[in-house]
């Protein structure tokens, strides 16, 4: 009876070991990278009745998990966060209007979180560079929408680089385009987000 119990215990340990070893290649091949805030840039551009404008995000964070063991890299997860009040134009009055429009008192962050990769393909004649379209949720000022985010993914010397641009409409996120000088200057509804980010 005692030897039978020992045999059962050994068999259970063997099964657990086999299961752990089968999961090991997945754990080894998937690597996680963190966004490096000090490198790269995220910029929002737009128009107004007076002049074009741009704002740069000074505080951004995020993580991406990649499995690069196959013919094409597999993006397991991607999350990107911008602190709303870190958007700076170099003009205090404009920044103040931006934060008011974004309601930053209640909504501190702008967040994109990937749900799935819609497409990925290698860039012709360029090694370790891929065209990607990722579908995910983008939350701005408390409103969340599902969007397709296009970018170029480059793998280089332990770094991941994501570069692209995405047009949006403020009113899609229930944001009233900011106005200035008693409404005589009006901001255009359409904006464009430009991103050139480095992940380590």
Q: What ranges have pLDDT less than 50 throughout 5 or more consecutive residues?
A: none
Q: Going across the major beta sheet, what is the strand order?
A: 1-3-4-6-7-8-9-11
| Helical percentage | 10-25%
| Overall geometric form | elongated
Mean pLDDT: 88
Protein name: YceI family protein
InterPro entries: Lipid/polyisoprenoid-bd_YceI, TTHA0802/YceI-like_sf
Domain Lipid/polyisoprenoid-binding YceI-like: 32-200
What does this structure look like?
With 200 residues, this protein is of the alpha+beta class. It has an eight-stranded antiparallel barrel. The chain has one domain: Beta Barrel (Lipocalin). It starts with a helix and ends with a strand. The mean pLDDT is 88. InterPro entries: Lipid/polyisoprenoid-bd_YceI, TTHA0802/YceI-like_sf. This is YceI family protein. It comes from Flagellimonas iocasae.
Quickly list its features.
YceI family protein; 200 residues; eight-stranded antiparallel β-barrel; 56% strand; elongated; 20% helix; alpha+beta
